[in-house]
Structure to design on (146 residues):
C-alpha cells in the first residue's frame, strides 16, 4: 500500500483549521502583551507574578514567541492545505514543551498557586498543539495537504 492515499479533504477540516487559527491569534495577543510589558502593568500584578515575570531567563520570550508564531502559521497553513503545517506544529510543540517544562521544573508556581489553578491552561495549549500535529500528519497521509 502507498505511504498515503489521496482523498478529498473533509468539510470539517476548514472549520477546525479556522478554530486553530483563532486560538493562535489569541496566543499572539497574549504574546504581544507579555513582550510589551511595562511598569504600569507590572505594578498591578501580585508580588509572586511580578517576581516570576522579571526572573525569567532571556531566552524564555524567544521560546514563547516560537511556540505562538509557529502555531499560528501552522493553523494558517492548514487552512491553505499546505504540508508546511506539520513542521510548523512540530516547532510549536517543542517550544511549548520547553516553555512549560522550564516553568514547572524550575519555579515554584504550582506550590504557590496550586495545581488546579496552574495546570489546566497549559494542558489545553499542549492539547491544541498536539491536535495540530496530528491533524497535519493525517492531512499529509490522506493527501489533503499539498
Amino acid at each position: 500500500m502507498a505511504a498515503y492515499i489521496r482523498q478529498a479533504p473533509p468539510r470539517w477540516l476548514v472549520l477546525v483549521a479556522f478554530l486553530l487559527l483563532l486560538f493562535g491569534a489569541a496566543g499572539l495577543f497574549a504574546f504581544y502583551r507579555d513582550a510589551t510589558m511595562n511598569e504600569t502593568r507590572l505594578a498591578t500584578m501580585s508580588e509572586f507574578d511580578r517576581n516570576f515575570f522579571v526572573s525569567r531567563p532571556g531566552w524564555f520570550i524567544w521560546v514563547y514567541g516560537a511556540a505562538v508564531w509557529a502555531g499560528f502559521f501552522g493553523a494558517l497553513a492548514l487552512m491553505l492545505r499546505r504540508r508546511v503545517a506539520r513542521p510548523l506544529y512540530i516547532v510549536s510543540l517543542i517550544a511549548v514543551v520547553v516553555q512549560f517544562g522550564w516553568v514547572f521544573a524550575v519555579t515554584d508556581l504550582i506550590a504557590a498557586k496550586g495545581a488546579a489553578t496552574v495546570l489546566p491552561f497549559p494542558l489545553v495549549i499542549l492539547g491544541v498543539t498536539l491536535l495540530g500535529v496530528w491533524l497535519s500528519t493525517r492531512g499529509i497521509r490522506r493527501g489533503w495537504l499539498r
The CA atoms of residues 38 and 77 lie 33 Å apart. The chain has a mean pLDDT of 94. Helices lie at 12-35, 39-43, 47-55, 59-79, 85-106, 109-113, 115-118, 120-142. The first helix runs from residue 12 to 35.
